[in-house]
Specification:
This protein has six helices and 13 strands. The chain is of the alpha+beta class. The chain has one domain. The strands form three sheets. It has a nine-stranded mixed beta barrel with strand order 1-2-3-4-5-6-9-10-11. The chain has a two-stranded antiparallel ribbon with strand order 7-8. A hairpin with an 8-residue loop joins strand 10 and strand 11. The longest helix is centred in the N-terminal third of the chain and has 18 residues. The relative contact order is 0.15.
Length: 287
C-alpha cells in the first residue's frame, strides 16, 4: 500500500506538471483560436452535387471540344476532364516566355498522343502534392486541428499538412524539397497566414500524360485561410516563382463544411472507398 504522504506528493507533482504544460497564457490563446471543427470538402467536389454544375456539365458535354485538354483524347471520360478543368490550380500559370513555350509544347504533345499509348490504370493518384492537395476535385476531404503551436490539416487519404505557428522556417541547411513543402504560419485576427517553401520542382500532378502546371523548387506559396461564413472556409493563395512566372499567380480556393460526415475513414483510392455520394451529399456508405 502506498503511504499517504507519497501519494499526496505524487499528485502534487502531477498537478504542477499539468500547470506547466497548460499555463494560463496558453489556455487564453487556445480559447481564442477560431472554430474550424468538422470535415471540409473542396468547392468543385461540392458543386459536383448541385444542379448548377450539372447544367454547366451537360452544356460542356454537348460541345466536348470546349472542354480544356488535360489528357490525350479518349483517356479520360469527358466528365472527368470537365471536372478537372474547373479547378483553379489546373489552369495555365502566368509563365514567362520560355516556360509558356514549354507548356504549349507539352499541351500539343498530349493532344496528339493516341489513347493506346497510355497504359491502362496509369491515370490514377492516391496521394497528392501541395498545392494540388488543396484543390483536388474528386476527394478533397480534410479536418482542421488548431492549437497555439500548430494548425494541422488531416486529409482522408492519411496525408497531413503541418503548419507551425510557433517558429520560423528551419535554417536552409535543414531544409530540402518535399511533396508538401515546409509550412509555417502566423495569425492575423481570425486569418491564418501560411508561408510554404521547399516544394519539389515539377508538375502539380505527377501522372504521365496529364497536363499540369510545373513550377521550380524556388516557388513560394502564401495562403490566407479564413472563414467567410458559418460553413465556409476560403484559401486565398498567392504563388511566386521568379524562375518561371512573370508575376504572382493568385487563386482563391473555397471549402464547405460537410454536413453528412462526422468522421474520416482512412482509405486507399484503389480499395475500401466508402466515401460515396448519396442523394446529392457525400456520406459514409455501408460495405
Amino acid at each position: 500500500m502506498i503511504p499517504r504522504i507519497l501519494l499526496l506528493t505524487a499528485l502534487a507533482c502531477c498537478t504542477a506538471l499539468r500547470a506547466q504544460e497548460n499555463p494560463p497564457e496558453r489556455v487564453r490563446r487556445f480559447a481564442a483560436m477560431p472554430a474550424w471543427s468538422g470535415i471540409w470538402e473542396g468547392e468543385v467536389a461540392a458543386q459536383a452535387r448541385t444542379d448548377e454544375l450539372d447544367k454547366a456539365m451537360h452544356e460542356a458535354l454537348a460541345h466536348p471540344e470546349s472542354i480544356p485538354a488535360v489528357a490525350p483524347p479518349g483517356v479520360l471520360h469527358p466528365v472527368e476532364a470537365f471536372v478537372i478543368s474547373r479547378t483553379q490550380l489546373q489552369r495555365k500559370p502566368p509563365y514567362n516566355g520560355e516556360w509558356d513555350r514549354r507548356y504549349e509544347r507539352l499541351k500539343q504533345r498530349i493532344l496528339t498522343t493516341p489513347a493506346s499509348a497510355v497504359k491502362a490504370g496509369s491515370i490514377m493518384a492516391c496521394n497528392w502534392e501541395f498545392p494540388e492537395i488543396m484543390d483536388n476535385p474528386f476527394d478533397t476531404l480534410f479536418q482542421v486541428f488548431v492549437t497555439p503551436e500548430e494548425t494541422l490539416l488531416l486529409f482522408a487519404n492519411g496525408q497531413a499538412r503541418h503548419i507551425y505557428t510557433d517558429r520560423p522556417h528551419p535554417k536552409p541547411g535543414d531544409l530540402w524539397p518535399t511533396d508538401l513543402g515546409n509550412s509555417v504560419g502566423h495569425w492575423e485576427g481570425d486569418t491564418l497566414v501560411i508561408d510554404t517553401i521547399e516544394h519539389k520542382s515539377g508538375p502539380f500532378i505527377r501522372i504521365p500524360f496529364i497536363l499540369s502546371p510545373d513550377l521550380s523548387d524556388e516557388a513560394r506559396f502564401t495562403e490566407r485561410l479564413r472563414m467567410t461564413g458559418p460553413d465556409a472556409l476560403q484559401d486565398e493563395m498567392t504563388i511566386e516563382d521568379p524562375e518561371r512566372l512573370t508575376h504572382p499567380w493568385r487563386v482563391t480556393l473555397r471549402f464547405r463544411r460537410a454536413s453528412n460526415l462526422d468522421r474520416l475513414i482512412p482509405y486507399n483510392c484503389t480499395e475500401n472507398d466508402r466515401f460515396k455520394v448519396v442523394h446529392g451529399k457525400v456520406t459514409i456508405t455501408p460495405k
